[in-house]
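Before going further, learn to read the protein records used in this course. The integers have meaning only within a learned vocabulary of local backbone shapes. The record below shows the convention in full.
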Amino acid sequence: NTIANNDSTATGALAFAAGDANSTPQPAGVVSAPHSAVLQALIALPGEPTYSNPTILNNIIWHNRSFYNDATLNGGAGGLAPNPAGPYWDLGVVNAVGVPPTLTSASSILSGGADPAFVLGYTNALASATVIDEGGNNINVGFTPLDPAAGNYHVAAASPAVDAGSNAASVPSTDFDGDYRPRSAANPADIGADEQPGAVPPPPFPVLTVLDTFNRANAPNLGANWQQIVDGSAAGIRVNGNQAFCINNALCAGTANLGGANAAWATEFGANQGAGFTFASPNAAARNGASLLLKASVANNGGIRVRYATGNGGQVLVQTTTDAGASFQNHGTLVGSFAQGDTMMATADANGLVTVWKTTAANVTTQLGTVQLPTTGTLSWTTGPGQIGMRLLPNRRVDDFRGGNVQ
């Protein structure tokens, strides 16, 4: 959001203490108030705040002015004067008993920071007229007709808001104008309602065919369409509860980075390929480490691993192995968290570019970012074909494995 150059006049009835001709200055940007007694009684969770405390992220809240009615002005008729505590009051909680609680912001620009450099900002000019009416008890504040051409609250190219925002998953993928808003380490989101043009929106994610729904009887492996290391007929990843499940035994053991079991789809796909699965574990810890495999090749002892990690708010690591999974090299880390029912998808192109996507249970798809892999030397195989699959740690569950060739 961009909330700028608003004015609070503090001329409503509740801004005046009983019998006082001077009003009490009020905040002018984002304002909250304590819950009513009825609402507070309905909040059952202990430790919840007694007032609305919104998450304020990537906002420009700038030069919102606080005035009050000074009864000594205009020959005793009164008029607006700046708040003695300071002209700007961007965040505030009103009508609190005792010390007022506070609102906080993150990755935002407030009046105490650098000028956000709007293309054309404007402020209101005050004109006072003294009309004694209603025994001196009437205060009327109005405004003249608005001129949309008088202001342009897009930010300039040199604005400190550009590329300074958070890339949190809650940040929208488009701005106020509907323009694409990138959220990657190389091109962070801008602060405020406007995103500077120039970023190219990602192409729509290619539709990947669901290759296995796992909707069949429990089995000690995934079946004939998969290639797995087995002990007799038992494999680490198996069909359980109509999902793919990694059992907690020696077939699916090891450390978080190197452990788990692999399963590769038996059919090889071309140099432009994609894969995905849906997270089925309700517990966040049981989603950690679940990975997609792309361009896996026995001949090269290589493959691409797109690994989800729940730490630091959720990350996706794009890695390669050249020793059949004994070690992995990380080439890029993308920001994104996945819940139960969310689908992680990745494509690997013939030019070595890996793109990662997230589709929520509500069917909203966003691109988390891209990572360019080396395409020469020991990683020259990244430009070629290979198998797709998954790598799961013990007690991980996924569903609806999908994949295929992409354009």
Q: What stands out?
A: The longest helix spans residues 37-42. The chain has two domains: 2-155, 209-405.
